[in-house]
Automatic annotation (TrEMBL):
The lineage of its organism: Eukaryota, Metazoa, Chordata, Craniata, Vertebrata. This is tRNA (uracil-O(2)-)-methyltransferase. It is found in: Cytoplasm. It comes from Anolis carolinensis. Residues 613-643 form the C3H1-type domain. The gene is TRMT44. It comes from the Eukaryota. PROSITE patterns: ZF_C3H1.
Length: 655
């Protein structure tokens, strides 16, 4: 433990004038009834070291470049390296060392890490982190590189975290720094107030709570710095899709989630090409591709591939000819011998089959899986282990399938806006190509066993890591022959082509007729309403969905009844014309959507208009409203006449 003199921040005025003293910013009292300290403190420090984005949302993460114990000869790297800069800095007092920094100092561990921001600028920053395990002190020292390619400790933004035992199960965690030498940029170096409140409170919480983390840290298999750059580039490149999203799903979630998945795959594939000495970009097939955005991004980035789904989406027509999407049914017997990678992104009932399909397609085929809904080979997945969460148990099952199929399965956690973020990657095999026939039989037996008996794991474990072909099949099953193709399709019911029932496949003349009918109803019923008439432009009235339905004929209502959401869905799909709030419908006034946050005249505010989607559709109000469009042609994002129409173009490939 620290001596009393070391427990306090240095307050000597002489030392303060040298700029080396650190003041106590704040101290948090911690009760430790479970006796987790001091070990829990170092676990909390480890979270802040390795995953700083958990606390500082403006960081993409951190990269630990090196870690060496002590400052002896084995702690040195190259001449002029950061280790030498630390030893030559003379910052022993700041580190809590009475005699300065000595060669023989024990109990010290030095970590070199790089902080990676989400956006650039600022550029990534390096810092030395000195952990004094015995005294419970960790110090963060920013680095800067000189013109001679050497490093030196910066005089600003140094801060320290200290643990102190008071009595019994009472401890304190404190943050120290030198406010006059702390220059915050709000990203890499948050404000002093943030260190005192946010960081200190999180460290105190993490130090005493028992965290059972079932999953790996995010992006553990790739470079965080590389991911940050590629993700930001893709996000900027494809952000326009959010503004023209024709589906009823949330564009913010689905667009940026697929951008994140694409960024991850691009790095995995780039690393694979470098490791294997490949120059040609990998090909892929996305099984159960849904909206097809992931296929669109990967194709635009130069990877040949296609997506297959049982149902066509409206947005497919917007991608252009370079994005290959196919409406079809995928079965376990579907093979892709010429494809490098199979992708299963929330692929539902196909999820456990994708490792099987990849293994049978070719010896060189790999797969990427992002499991979501819990499916077994022949229906819903049934839980068998109550000590695990359902999600963890299912991931273990899908991992087991990959191992049975002969893959070395790796697990990672993505940074996506979803609760199901763990991906499984089968990149290499555990067996030789000559053993393929034996593996084929093993896969069939495993699938057949799950269908007939529902056994989660064979008791003899005969399918585990493969080193000898004779170990692949249980002895009591060697004599029994199985028809592999028959086993694969037995009991599996592939999802048939679905019929769209969200009003998107209704005849366009029918939709136009209903929209015009409802709009005229709202406009013709105009009277003193809750919306009022602030100008001569007719804003109409607000009516409930039931009141609107009373004015529609029986055949129209019958047609809408067969659609999910019925009348409400149709009106919400036509958001250019209507707003549906709390069960009431009214005409959308685009002047309200354009009002600035501050009360300034509209003509003094520069409106942001999407560069690639502006004027790609006709303005309904310009054509049908008795007073025309409330906006001018310059400020309305829709075309006032066919002469203003522009061709839709989203995320097209650059020539």
């Amino acid at each position: 433990m620290l001596a009393g003199a070391r427990r306090r921040a240095v307050t000597s005025s002489g030392r303060a004038r040298k700029g080396r003293a650190m003041e106590l910013l704040r101290e948090a009292c911690v009760r430790d009834p479970l006796r987790r300290l001091p070990g829990g403190f170092w676990e909390a420090v480890g979270v802040w070291l390795e995953r700083p984005q958990v606390a500082n949302k403006r960081l993409c993460g951190a990269r630990l470049d090196a870690s060496k114990p002590g400052f002896g000869d084995e702690g040195k790297l190259l001449e002029g390296a950061p280790w030498e800069a630390l030893r030559a800095s003379g910052c022993g007092e700041a580190l809590g060392l009475d005699g300065g920094l000595q060669e023989e100092e024990e109990g010290l561990e030095v970590v070199l890490r790089t902080l990676v921001p989400k956006t650039c600028p600022p550029a990534p920053a390096q810092e030395m982190v000195v952990k004094d395990i015995i005294k419970g002190i960790v110090t963060f020292l920013p680095l800067e590189q000189t013109h001679e390619d050497k490093y030196k400790i910066k005089k600003c933004n140094v801060y320290q975290i200290r643990l102190m035992h008071k009595q019994d199960n009472e401890w304190s965690i404190s943050i120290l720094s030198s406010p006059e030498n702390y220059i915050s940029d709000g990203i890499l170096y948050p404000k002093i107030t943030w260190l005192k409140s946010e960081l200190l409170s999180k460290l105190a919480k993490w130090s005493t709570e028992i965290i059972k983390n079932e999953f790996k840290s995010t992006l553990s298999l790739i470079s965080v710095a590389k991911y940050s750059k590629i993700y930001q580039d893709l996000k900027e490149k494809y952000k326009e899709i959010v503004k023209v999203w024709p589906e009823v799903t949330n564009p913010e979630k689905f667009v940026y989630e697929d951008v994140a998945i694409a960024a991850y795959l691009l790095i995995v594939w780039e690393d694979e090409r470098a490791e294997r000495g490949l120059s040609k970009k990998q090909s892929f097939v996305d099984l159960g591709c849904g909206n097809g955005l992931l296929v669109h991004i990967l194709s635009n980035e130069g990877h040949p591939g296609k997506g297959i789904d049982v149902r066509r989406r409206r947005i497919w027509d917007m991608y252009g000819p370079h994005t290959h999407l196919e409406e079809n049914v995928v079965s376990p017997n579907s093979l892709y011998p010429d494809v490098d990678w199979l992708i299963g992104n929330h692929s539902d009932e196909l999820t456990p089959w994708i490792p099987v399909i990849a293994a049978r397609s070719s010896y060189s085929c790999r797969y990427f899986l992002l499991p979501c809904c819990f499916f077994d080979f022949h229906g819903k997945y049934n839980r068998r282990q109550s000590k695990k969460t359902q999600y963890r148990e299912y991931l273990d099952f899908v991992t087991e399938v990959g191992v049975v199929c002969g893959f070395n399965v790796e697990e990672d956690c993505l940074r996506i806006p979803s609760t199901k973020r763990v991906c499984l990657i089968g990149m290499s095999r555990t067996y030789l190509a000559a053993q393929e026939n034996v593996l084929e039989e093993q896969r069939a037996r495993y699938i057949n066993r799950r269908q007939l008996c529902g056994i989660t794991t064979p008791e003899n474990g005969s399918f585990l890591a493969v080193s000898d072909a004779t170990d692949l099949v249980a002895e009591d099953e060697v004599s029994e022959e199985l028809n592999v193709d028959k086993v694969l399709i037995s009991g599996f019911l592939p999802r048939s082509k679905e019929q769209m029932r969200n009003c998107t496949t209704l005849p366009q003349d029918f939709v136009d007729r209903v929209v015009l009918k409802v709009a005229n109803l709202l406009l013709n019923e105009t009277k003193e309403s809750s919306f009022g008439n602030a100008s001569t432009w007719n804003r109409g009235v607000s009516l409930t969905l039931g009141e609107v339905a009373e004015h529609l004929d029986k055949e129209t209502l019958k047609t809408l009844k067969n659609e999910y959401g019925g009348l409400q869905t149709l009106l919400r799909n036509n958001h250019q014309v209507f707003e549906v709030l709390n069960g009431k419908v009214h005409i959308r006034d685009w002047r309200e959507a354009k009002l600035p946050r501050k009360n300034r005249p509209a003509n003094q505010v520069k409106q942001r208009l999407p560069s690639k989607t502006f004027k790609t559709r006709l303005c309904w109000f310009y054509i049908h409203h008795p007073h025309g469009c409330p906006l001018t042609s310059e400020s309305c994002q829709y075309a006032h006449g066919t002469e203003e129409l522009k061709q839709t173009s989203i995320g097209t490939k650059k020539k």
